[in-house]
Design brief:
Layout (H helix, E strand, L loop, with lengths): L1 E5 L4 H19 L3 E5 L11 H9 L4 E3 L10 H4 L21 E6 L2 E9 L10 H10 L5 E7 L3 H10 L6 E5 L9 E2 L5 E3 L6 E2 L8 H10 L12 E11 L2 E10 L1
Parallel strand pairs: 1-2, 2-3, 5-6, 6-7, 7-9
Antiparallel strand pairs: 1-11, 4-5, 8-9, 10-11, 11-12
Length: about 250
């Protein structure tokens, strides 16, 4: 099975490049399943219902997220009826939505799970405890994890711990695509960060001058999404059985 994992789609530029290039990617690579991190798709923070529908109309199978998932109040309502829009599984259990989903694709059971790291992030429950409990009763043939975290070491340690138990773990959140795509000894595919699907010549999606002003002066400064042309970033996984046979990153403009 070939799976496209696409990094954080950021605002208008991210939506535009995704719409323009995703169909071509799916056709060229014979993609069977598309997973997109959509937590920044609406004006750079959060996801509204219109943009959820936008992603589904593009053929996205599962939408993952992270710490910005509930930045828009409306998300708390519509996420209750959209099981393919995930919030991190190890967030507060009283929050609406779910953090994992099982799909049936090409005669196989494919699980996609969304988790969030603890280092330099908002408080969440221990991802190891949550993952261990999930795996106790998991019957999936393929299991892909979006681990939304700041620290690269945290992402890598988590992936190594579950090498051979999951098919792949991809990192999101930093918006910077890393060059460490690899397959661990027991067959788990890995990359520290998929990167951002969003505007070039920006600072992780925002206009550079605004970020520089805050960094230089410490003044409270509102960041606005940059509207430069976008780049589509992520990886294509080829999974056979539960094992990743290849992982190939892309950056398409």
């Amino acid at each position: 099975m070939k799976i496209a994992m696409i990094g954080d789609v950021f605002s208008k530029s991210g939506r535009a490049i995704l719409k323009a290039k995703l169909p071509q990617l799916v056709k060229k690579e014979n993609i069977d399943l598309v997973v997109v991190n959509g937590e920044n798709i609406s004006n750079g923070k959060g996801i509204n219902n219109n943009h959820y529908v936008f992603l589904k109309e593009l053929g996205v199978d599962v939408i993952t997220s992270g710490n910005h998932i509930f930045k828009l109040k409306e998300t708390q309502d519509f996420i209750k009826t959209t099981p393919d829009l995930l919030r991190p599984l190890n967030m507060n259990s009283y929050l609406p939505g779910q953090g994992t989903i099982m799909l049936h694709k090409n005669g196989q059971k494919v699980r996609v799970t969304n988790l969030m790291g603890k280092t330099f992030m908002e408080h969440v429950n221990n991802p190891y405890e949550i993952m261990d409990n999930l795996l106790l009763n998991d019957t999936s043939d393929i299991h892909i994890v979006d681990f939304h975290a700041e620290a690269s070491a945290e992402k890598m340690a988590f992936a190594w711990n579950y090498d051979g138990q999951i098919s792949a773990l991809v990192g999101t959140h930093t918006h910077v695509q890393t060059a460490d795509e690899q397959i661990f000894p027991k067959g788990t595919g890995y990359i520290t960060d998929l990167g951002m699907t969003g505007p070039i010549n920006s600072i992780i999606g925002a206009n550079p001058e605004e970020v520089i002003l805050r960094e230089k002066t410490s003044l409270p400064t509102k960041f606005t999404p940059c509207e430069n042309p976008g780049v589509l970033r992520g990886v294509v996984l080829e999974v056979v059985g539960k094992v990743t046979k290849s992982i190939k990153k892309f950056a398409i403009s």
